[in-house]
Design brief:
mainly beta, Glyco_hydro_beta-prop_sf, Family 43 glycosylhydrolase
Length: 349
């Protein structure tokens, strides 16, 4: 696959039908999705169709996204459905080392098994690593994009000098970004706008596992903690007992919905996704049928671990894009973007 461009390797889908769905709906997740699932987690997880074409967005080319493509996040801006993602590889003319960088593409077609993209920014990174002594000098990853004040704010995990933190880059058009800098300590941001504030859920390591915390900002740059305590953590003895990671947020009416990864055995290698809802982003109600989604079969492209569930929909299905790996960190990490779908009229009830 290394000889193909990012766009050409994707299977052609049905852009006309997808455009109609984008115009008709006002949110990507709703109470309808919540109500699809009953109280039996096995039935819920088995209700999903894992695409036979996974990974639907594989690593490609021979430079910055030749090794991994991961961390999908979706934002509608100026009438376009934009996919922000992480690539990993070596760029010519740089330090010769592999780094994580951020890119963007437009989603132009979607079915239950395929996605079609159009490269933006010439297929080049939109946010690159900084210098060796900077806060993001090693990796920039985990993008979370939000429209705020008519511009696109992309928050991201930054790895470099000092502790891991959340960085920020801002764009007028969703494609050309300028870095703002180090915003706060934390990783894997999930941002959403509420009552004129940018709210951010992010993860911090505690007792060998991650828990979720909440901060907010009136200008999108300077954040204050909403609570000193974690707002969401796993249940002892359960599927998410050790760690909660890589949340994604959506809003529907007066409610907020969160999909997230959970693990009972390692800090950052989730087997399942859970679903929760809230009216204030501070107090969360987990779905009684959690987990509602699980890894694919052993040996499949998403059979080892899964992260970052980004929700979309077609006319008849809810669709998730997510980072999947066929193996584990210890022996075959292979992060690429996978897809699964579930019919809107039948699931785990």
């Amino acid at each position: 696959m290394s000889n193909h461009s990012f766009t050409s390797i994707l299977v052609r889908a049905m852009p006309g039908r997808y455009s109609e769905v984008k115009k008709r709906r006002s949110s990507t997740i709703s109470e309808q999705l919540w109500n699809l699932f009953g109280g039996n987690y096995r039935h819920n997880c088995l209700s999903w169709h894992h695409s036979a074409r996974n990974p639907v967005i594989p690593a490609s080319g021979d430079t910055w996204r030749s090794v991994w493509v991961a961390n999908p996040d979706v934002l509608t801006f100026n009438g376009k459905q934009l996919l922000y993602y992480r690539g990993n590889g070596i760029m010519p003319g740089t330090d010769g080392q592999r780094h994580d960088r951020l890119g963007v593409a437009e989603i132009v077609g979607l079915t239950r098994d395929t996605i079609s993209l159009r490269d933006l920014n010439g297929g080049e990174p939109i946010v690159d690593v900084g210098g060796p002594d900077e806060f993001d000098g090693k990796d920039v990853l985990d993008p979370s994009a939000v429209e705020f004040g008519g511009r696109v704010f992309v928050y991201y995990s930054a790895v470099g000098a000092g502790p891991d933190c959340v960085g920020l880059a801002v764009s007028d058009d969703g494609v050309n970004f300028a870095k703002v800098g180090n915003i706060m300590e934390g990783r894997a941001p999930a941002a959403i706008v509420k009552d004129g504030f940018v709210y951010m859920i992010y993860q911090l390591l505690q007792n060998n596992g991650y828990r979720l915390y909440l901060a907010r900002s009136r200008d999108g740059i300077h954040f204050e903690q909403v609570s000193e305590q974690s707002i969401f953590e796993g249940t002892p003895g359960n599927w998410d007992a050790l760690s909660i990671v890589t949340a994604r947020l959506t809003k529907d009416g007066d409610s907020f919905y969160m999909m997230y990864g959970g693990s009972s055995y390692l800090a950052d290698e989730p087997d399942f996704f859970g679903l929760a809802r809230s009216t204030d982003l501070l107090h969360w109600e987990p779905h009684p049928g959690n987990p509602i989604f699980g890894c694919g079969a052993m040996g499949e492209e998403d059979g080892g671990a899964i992260w970052f569930p980004a929700l979309l929909e077609t006319e008849s299905e809810f669709v998730i894009l997510y980072e999947g790996s066929r193996g584990k960190y210890s022996w075959d990490i292979s992060s690429q973007i996978c897809m699964s779908s579930i019919p809107k009229q039948s699931a785990g009830m």
